[in-house]
Amino acid sequence: MHYLRVVILSILTGLSIYSPAFADDDAGNSMSGSVTDKSTNTPLPGVTVYFPDLHVGAATDAQGHYEIKNLPKGKFLVEVHFIGYATLTQTVQVNGATHINFSLSTKVIEENEVVITGVSQATSLKQNPTPVNIIRKDYLDANISTNIIDAVAKLPGVSQLTTGPAISKPFIRGLGYNRVVVIGDGVRQEGQQWGDEHGIEIDDYNVSKIEVLKGPASLVYGSDALAGVVNIVPPSPEPAGHVKGNIAANYLSNNGMISYHADLAGTTQNGFSWSVYGTQKFAHDYKNKYDGYVYNSKFHNTNYGGSIGINKNWGSSVLRFTSFNQELGLVEGDRNELGQFIKPINDNGEEGEAVATNKDFKSYTIGLPRQQINHQKLVWDNNFYMHDGGRLNVILGYQWNRRQEFGDVLHPDEPELYLKLNTFNYGVKYSFADMNGWQTSIGVNGMQQHNNILSGSEFLVPGYNLFDAGIYAVTSKTWDKLTFSGGLRFDNRHISVDGLMLDGDGKPVSSGGEEKFNALSKNFSNISGSAGLSYAVSNMVTLKANVARGFRAPNISEIGANGVHEGTIKYEYGNEALKPEVSTQGDVGVEFNSEHVSLTGSLFYNHITNFIYSRKLSSVNGGDSIPTTDNDEGYAAFQYQQSTANLYGGEVMIDIHPHPIDWLHFENTFSYVKAVIANASDSTKYLPNIPAARWLSELKGKFKHVGGIFQNAYAGIQMDWTFDQNNVYYAYQTETATPGYTLWNAGIGADVVNKNKKVLFSLHLAANNITDVAYQNHLSRLKYAPENEVTGRTGVFNMGRNYSVRVAIPLNFK
């Protein structure tokens, strides 16, 4: 194991230092041409022409012309994108000075989106056999969200586990936590994903598009991508000679959230690129019809970052830095006998409590308990063009994650829990030149990780060291109407857990104390694979099928936890005997796209051996098991265990845009997943944390040309119907059923332009939960907060009616 680590790190270091060896002396390859409207044949200015695999592109000028220099010789997928038009994808052959013209259609359904997640090379959505959903920045602007995962939770098959509005974790087809890998800036995001109340440390303004891959995706991303991947793609470099930016602001009425953002980026004619951005958010407590204002649900965000890069005939290199900083309250939901929320106070040097007032609710000052997260990330992404037509990608990343929890009202600035997680990510991928239609890549990637308990009086998980390495090969080929995609991967993960002993005062000692965490060493390895087919029956119908095997090693909480987990209202025990999860999943799907109707449908079956989940423990007397040590709150104990699990379900989407009013869209999506434990009793039959079935129905009008000062306008109303969830793991009251609910949402927006049709600013108005329904989502952790003795209702309810105003001002300094 040590030898493998040394070899991998030596190769990475050598490649990154000796990058000039990969330079291509042939600087004569370029692509130029024009982009026009297909129906009017008029030139389109501002269209993006982009090579996803090469990370280079250009924008058309006022005459619709574009030019991209410093390209390698070979066959590549190019993406042509412009708001209000269908995205065009086309494979082009670059050899010398290449001239290609494109025509865009105003057809609104974008079936030709480009997929870069989990494939050997960028491919069109139509040819990719794995279920993928893609959304762009304009979707994020038009929908209300309080964090990056909240923004994608309406996609079919995607849901979120929440702990208030600031914290959301992605679930794909019923699976979450470490089973979903989140990619940001090209590397996997590592920030204590095992925790219910640990969100994703990525700024939701610093995004160009998001790809959600559903199903085992361990081939490219290794252990943990058992449920799928959420790839959050940062903005691409600006075209040469351009300096562009944005200023944006957003206000939400329910929790008074104020956010503002600014970014600026440019690229010189000689290929030097740069970017900077900054975002701030402030929110007070949110409210709903049953609870009123929910005490301590407020949060603050301060995020910033930037990049520098170079694009030359030998390839490209970019260095990105991001800093995510969040402070948030942890909702405990404690109330007095009158049903009023109470807050902890310092009563003349003694711990006390008082009724939370309207001033407390409306204040932007965060109370106790609170959590502070600081996450910095540095990524160096290199793309080298080889003499044989291949490409070598070397990506190195380093992440610093600091997580502190404060809960002592007598010492509010002293952390009770302080975790320090450092992660080094590495990856090398070689993409071979096109070989008789075969597109093949081989690679090695993984991470080295160290988690340390810096200080504090509470201990939940132990310190540990982890080294993860995997080698893989993926390939694809298209024969006329048939596309094959598949590959294999081998993974090895080693984790060594630090032991910890505490004295009578709960302080760490080297010997003679009570053992809190056992020292142990674990090694996990497995083989993953996938194979899929996409077949274009006709120009309108495509059939898809895919089978995949995935692998996930137990995380540190699952094997080593021993303590109070404040944000989840639990006392958690790990299980050292846990084995890796292994998933075998099959998918079948169909896509139908005509001029006025689009339909996609997908069915899946997922068989998981050694599935890991947490259940409540019972005492010898039949009630809850409540540990007496380090558990002043009296939380019930939960422990991780394993069983064989079977999940099945699917998603369907239909969009009708009838002639002659094809500006009108009637879009419906339905998602369903059922998850059962093999050979279990009635009370333990269903897996916990499985989202309910959901039907989204939206009537929306899109108007490219409105007249006057408006263009690219839209207006719509949406019904969000979540069904009852009665299939729960109710043994020992681990989980409770959740009634269904229906929410009504609406939105309207447009670009405001001057007489030259230049966009001055974009305005988006939206409303969520218009009828102010009081509801609890099945995956809300606040559902399990204490009972309100006045109403008899258990837990805290989700956000009520919420209005949003968002303004974005584009900047162009060309």
Structure description:
Mean pLDDT is 90; it is low at 6-21. 4% of the residues lie in helices and 53% in strands. The protein is built from five helices and 48 strands. Strand 33 and strand 34 form a beta hairpin. It has 814 residues and is mainly β. The chain has a 22-stranded antiparallel beta barrel. The longest helix has 16 residues, at 2-17. The protein is globular.
Compose a concise summary of this entry:
It contains 5 helices and 48 strands. About 2% of the residues have low confidence.
Give the helix/strand layout.
Layout lengths: L1 H16 L12 E8 L10 E4 L4 E4 L5 E4 L5 E8 L6 E7 L2 E3 L2 E3 L9 E2 L7 E2 L7 E5 H6 L15 E5 L5 E5 L7 E5 L2 E2 L20 E6 L3 H4 L6 E6 L8 E11 L4 E11 L4 E12 L3 E2 L3 E2 L5 E14 L2 E15 L12 E6 L2 E6 L2 H5 L7 E16 L5 E16 L10 E15 L7 E17 L8 E16 L2 E16 L2 E3 L5 E2 L4 E4 L2 E17 L4 E12 L3 H5 L1 E4 L4 E4 L7 E13 L3 E20 L20 E20 L7 E14 L16 E14 L2 E13 L18 E13 L5 E10 L33 E11 L2
Parallel strand pairs: 1-7, 1-8, 14-17, 39-42
Antiparallel strand pairs: 1-4, 2-3, 2-5, 5-6, 9-10, 11-16, 12-13, 14-15, 16-17, 18-19, 18-48, 19-20, 20-23, 21-22, 23-24, 24-27, 25-26, 27-28, 28-29, 29-30, 30-31, 31-32, 32-36, 33-34, 33-35, 36-37, 37-40, 38-39, 40-41, 41-42, 42-43, 43-44, 44-45, 45-46, 46-47, 47-48
